[in-house]
TrEMBL record:
Belongs to the carotenoid oxygenase family. Its cofactor is Fe(2+). GO terms for biological process: carotene catabolic process. Pfam families: RPE65. Keywords: Dioxygenase, Iron, Metal-binding, Oxidoreductase. The keyword Oxidoreductase applies. PANTHER family: BETA-CAROTENE DIOXYGENASE, CAROTENOID 9,10(9',10')-CLEAVAGE DIOXYGENASE 1. Its EC number is 1.13.11.-. Signal peptide: none annotated. InterPro entries: Carotenoid_Oase. Binds 1 Fe(2+) ion per subunit. This is Dioxygenase.
Length: 500
C-alpha cells in the first residue's frame, strides 16, 4: 500500500484536510455516544478521492484521486463499524503493478503513459449509488464499478449485463421513490469532447430498459440532472471541453463567461426528439440540484445551487478567470419553465441561501418538496473556514428550508446548526422516520481541526426537524479522513436481503 510522503505536490489539493491518507481501514465496535434513534439502523456509504500514488503532474487536483468507498455500519448492539477500501479499478490495478502514477492530467487521455492507452481510466470516486441490491461506485467520466455492500470488495466494472452502450454514466442518478426506477445519463457518451448524451432508464429490478442518445448544445460538464413525475431535465452550463485543447495536453474544462446556459426538457418516458431547449443566463454554473417538480398548472420548477461562475478554483484558473473567492456569488435558485408554453427562456427566482449539497427525502424525488436541507457558511463566523475539498473551503452550517411556511426575507431558512471556527460538515444523508409527521434524521461526517495539520472526525446524527439542538448521537472515527464527495444511506432491511 502506498504511503503519504513529500512526493505529493504541496498545493491546495494535497494539504490540510486534502492531505492524502492512502490506507485502508477496518474499525469495529466503535462506541456510540448519546441516543441512536431506532430508525438509524443501516449503513452510511461515502465516496472519497484519495490518490494511491503522487500524480504525474504537479497541477493535479483533488478530484483525480483514486476512489475510496467507506461504510459506517450502525450495529444492532448499539455500536458501529467503519471500513474504507480502495475501488480496484483498472486504473488502480495498472498503477499498483508499476508502483507509480501512469495516468496524466485530469480527464485527459492524451497525457497518459503510452502503455496504458486504452485502459479504463475512471477512478470511480464520486458517488456510491444503491439500487436493486447493488452498490455502484460512480464517476461521470466512465462506467461505474460494482462493490460488495458488506465487505466493500471490488466486483468489477458494471455495464448492466452488457446493455449499457454509453462509455459514461453520471454519478448523479435519480431514483423515483414511487416506481423504484433509476434514471441516469452519460455525457461525452462516445468519447472526450463529444456532444453526445445517453439518457437511460433502469427498472426497479435493475434492468436497463431504455437508452437513447441526443446532442447537447455544446460539450459541457453535466454533473447533475433532475426528473419530475413526467419530465427529465438536462441543465447545460458553459464549462466546456475542446478536443484540440486535450490533444495539446491542456485542461479538460474551461469556463466561458459569455456563453449561454440551457435547460433541456423532455417527457421522461418519451423520445429524445421531443427535447425542448430553454435559454438560461450567460456564464452561470451549478453542480448540484435540490429537486424539480411540476405545479398544478404543469409548470416545472427546478431548484439548483447556482453561482455566477464555476465554483472550482482550478477550473477558473484554467479559464483565465481571476476572481477572489468572495466574488463568487450564488444562491439556491429556481428556474421555472412551462414545457407546453411559448416561452423559450427560463424565469428565475432566489429560494434559498448560497451553499451546496442540497437534500430532500428520497420519497419526494421529482415531486413537490415542502422542505429540504443544504450546507452553507455561518455568516457570523469570525475567521476563515476549514480548508479542504475541491473548492478549498469546507461548509460549516446546515440549514433547513421551508418552502411552504418559510419567511421569504430569510430565504426560507427556518432552522440551522452552525459549527464553530475550525469545524466543518460533509455532505449529509437523510434517514426517514417511522413517526408520522417527523422529518427524519440527518447523518453526516463532521471534522474538527485539533492542531497543526491534526483533525478529529465523527459521525453525527441530527434530528432533521431540530438541527439547532445539535447531535442526538455521535460516533468518533479514530483515523484520518479525507473530505468525501457524495454519500448514500442504505437501511439494514435492504442489506439483509442481499446477505441472505
Amino acid at each position: 500500500m502506498a504511503t503519504v510522503d513529500a512526493a505529493f505536490p504541496q498545493t491546495s489539493h494535497f494539504i490540510g484536510l486534502n492531505q492524502p491518507v492512502g490506507r485502508e481501514v477496518t474499525l469495529t465496535h466503535l462506541a456510540v455516544e448519546g441516543t441512536l434513534p431506532p430508525e438509524v439502523c443501516g449503513s452510511f456509504y461515502r465516496a472519497i478521492p484519495d490518490p494511491h500514488y503522487p500524480p504525474k503532474f504537479a497541477d493535479d487536483n483533488v478530484l483525480s484521486g483514486d476512489g475510496m468507498v467507506s461504510r459506517l455500519a450502525f450495529n444492532a448492539d448499539g455500536t458501529a463499524d467503519f471500513l474504507i477500501r480502495y475501488v480496484r479499478t483498472a486504473r488502480w490495478l495498472a498503477e499498483a503493478e508499476k508502483g507509480r502514477a501512469r495516468f496524466g492530467r485530469y480527464r485527459n487521455i492524451f497525457t497518459d503513459d503510452e502503455d496504458v492507452q486504452g485502459v479504463d481510466r475512471t477512478v470511480a470516486n464520486t458517488t456510491p449509488v444503491w439500487h436493486a441490491g447493488r452498490m455502484l461506485m460512480a464517476k461521470e467520466d466512465g462506467r461505474p464499478y460494482q462493490v460488495d455492500p458488506i465487505t466493500l470488495d471490488t466486483i468489477g466494472s458494471y455495464d448492466f449485463d452488457g446493455a449499457l452502450k454509453s462509455e459514461t454514466m453520471t454519478a448523479h442518478v435519480r431514483i423515483d421513490g414511487h416506481t423504484g426506477e433509476l434514471f441516469f445519463y452519460g455525457y461525452e457518451a462516445d468519447g472526450p469532447a463529444s456532444t453526445k448524451v445517453a439518457y437511460c432508464i433502469v427498472d426497479a429490478s435493475g434492468k436497463l430498459v431504455k437508452e437513447q442518445w441526443f446532442d447537447a448544445p455544446y460539450c459541457a460538464m453535466m454533473h447533475d440532472f433532475a426528473i419530475t413525475k413526467n419530465y427529465a431535465l438536462f441543465p447545460i452550463y458553459p464549462t466546456t471541453c475542446s478536443l484540440d485543447r486535450l490533444k495539446a495536453g491542456g485542461d479538460h474544462w474551461v469556463h466561458e463567461p459569455e456563453t449561454d446556459s440551457w435547460l433541456g426538457v423532455m417527457p421522461r418516458y418519451g423520445d429524445v426528439s421531443e427535447i425542448r431547449w430553454f435559454k438560461g443566463p450567460k456564464g452561470v454554473s451549478a453542480y448540484h440540484f435540490m429537486n424539480a417538480f411540476e405545479d398544478e398548472a404543469g409548470v416545472i420548477h427546478f431548484d439548483q445551487c447556482l453561482s455566477n461562475t464555476n465554483a472550482f478554483p482550478f477550473i477558473r484558473e484554467a479559464s483565465g478567470i481571476h476572481m477572489a473567492p468572495w466574488d463568487v456569488k450564488g444562491a439556491l435558485t429556481r428556474w421555472s419553465v412551462d414545457p407546453k408554453g411559448d416561452a423559450t427562456s427560463v424565469s428565475e427566482s432566489v429560494v434559498g441561501p448560497p451553499g451546496d449539497f442540497p437534500l430532500i427525502p428520497a420519497a419526494m424525488q421529482g415531486r413537490p418538496n415542502p422542505y429540504g436541507w443544504m450546507l452553507t457558511m455561518n455568516p457570523e463566523m469570525q475567521g476563515p473556514p476549514l480548508f479542504g475539498g475541491p473548492v478549498g473551503a469546507m461548509f460549516n452550517t446546515i440549514v433547513r428550508l421551508d418552502f411552504v411556511h418559510g419567511a421569504a426575507e430569510a430565504g426560507h431558512v427556518v432552522d440551522a446548526l452552525a459549527l464553530p471556527q475550525g469545524w466543518s460538515i460533509n455532505e449529509p444523508v437523510h434517514v426517514p422516520s417511522a413517526q408520522e409527521g417527523h422529518l427524519g434524521y440527518i447523518v453526516a461526517i463532521v471534522d474538527e481541526q485539533t492542531g497543526d495539520n491534526q483533525f478529529a472526525h465523527a459521525a453525527w446524527v441530527l434530528d432533521a426537524g431540530a438541527l439547532h439542538a445539535g447531535p442526538l448521537a455521535k460516533v468518533a472515527i479514530p483515523t484520518r479522513l479525507r473530505p468525501q464527495v457524495h454519500g448514500w444511506w442504505v437501511p439494514q432491511s435492504q442489506l439483509d436481503k442481499v446477505a441472505r
